[in-house]
Amino acid sequence: MGRRPRPRGPVHDLVLVVDKPAGPTSHDVVARIRRVVGHSRVGHTGTLDPAATGVLVVCLGRATKLVRFLQAGWKTYAARIQLGITTDSQDTTGLELARVDASHLDEHTVCEALSAFQGTFEQVPPMVSAVKVGGERLHTIARRGETVERTPRQVEVSSLVLDGFVPGPVAEVSVLLTCSAGTYVRTIAHDVGAALGVGGCLASLRRIGNGPFTADEAVTLDALEAASPEDVLAWGMDAATAVRRTLDVVEVTDDEVARRLSQGGSIPAVGHDGPVALVRPAAGARGEQLLAIVADDAAGTRARPELVWTRPEELR
After folding, report:
1. Number of helices (H) and strands (E), helices first, in the chain?
2. Regarding beta strands 53-60 and 200-210, do their DSSP bridges make them parallel or antiparallel, or are they unpaired?
3. What is the predicted pLDDT for the residue at 282?
């Protein structure tokens, strides 16, 4: 029996927190959600490897314009590392390059090794990654069997906690870590193994938090594909709700200021560092309305729109 056809109703400007399954790429997830909503305006705020699971923040309709404002922030992962195995991809999906008996390792020794990977440090991106070198993505170069020099990048790990340890010839280590965007957990697994002298690789990875968006609120891809349009609408959050999680917010009650913002005009400086969301407070049964996202200019005298959300005809 074939899959029932999807209704192609109006596209809602929503942000969805999706629980990505293992297997599909993040692009595959976006493609499948496009088929669910019957529209091509779908994007996500941070790639997960095909084997990884967990939080993928997906934006629908005009909410795709919010991606750059939602993707900043800390990422939190639950990871499982195998010590004693080195692979060419730094995870268990790659070709095994070496195997060393890790039976001598104990929990204390592993904890000491993990402590060296907290704080700010430089990390060399893995060959199997989307980083570009010479205009070409590293994973494309790696598929040709080539290796090139990569420039180290500064990353930050604010927390790296041992969550479980199973000794053996291949020791199993479970960790919880919170890190900056752009940190490669597979490289941490590889480097921890190297520091211990036995090699290491990433066995599994689940993102449990992407900034303020968490796995507890995520909807599965299977549920989305079986959902009605009303379900999708209920699971999503509107623009004002989404940006409140990631940006400072200033409420605007002056009609003239709201009109000027809707036309792309500047307003007096708001006195905040970085982008600020300007919203109109809730009125009656209506929720609050995102007007624009602004940032103070270099002189600190005017706030200029980085994104105009509400058009003049949409003003309440």
Report:
1. 9, 19
2. parallel
3. 82
Q: Are strands 15-20 and 219-220 parallel, antiparallel or unpaired?
A: parallel
Distances (CA, A) of 33 to 1, 38, 109, 217, 229: 21, 8, 45, 17, 12
Q: Which helix (H) or strand (E) holds 291?
A: strand 289-296
Q: What is the DSSP string of 78-109?
A: EEEEEETEEETTSBTTS-EEEE---TT--HHH
Catalytic residue among 13, 19, 49, 91: 49
Delimit the CATH 3.30.2350.10 region(s) of the chain: 15-72+212-238, 75-207
Residue 293 amino acid letter: I
Give buried/exposed letters for 262-277 (b at 16+ CB in 10 A, else e).
beeeebebeeeeebbb
First to last CA, the chain: 47
SS3 track for 111-165: HHHHHCCCEEEEECCCCCCCCEECCEEHHHHHHCCCCCCCCCEEEEEEEEEEEEE
- Answer for the pair 38, 8: CB distance below 8 angstroms, yes or no: yes
In this structure, are residues 220 and 56 in contact, taking their beta carbons and an 8 Å threshold?
no
Residue 272 in contact with residue 248, Cβ under 8 Å?
yes
Please confirm, yes or no, whether 91 is among the known catalytic residues.
Answer: no
Burial 133-159 (b: 16+ CB within 10 A, else e): eeeeebeebbeeeeeeeeeeeebbbee
Superfamily, domain 75-207: Pseudouridine synthase (3.30.2350.10)
Neighbours of 237 (CB within 10 A): 17
Report the C-alpha gap between 105 and 84 in whole angstroms.
Answer: 10
CATH T-level assignment (fold) for domain 247-314: 2.30.130
Q: What is the pLDDT of residue 11?
A: 57
Spans of the chain, pLDDT less than 50: 1-9
For 240, the token pair is: 């004002």
How many residues does the structure list for the chain? 316
Q: What fold does the segment set 15-72+212-238 form as a domain? A: Pseudouridine synthase (3.30.2350)
User: Which among 207, 196, 184 has a CA at the least distance from the CA of 90?
Assistant: 184
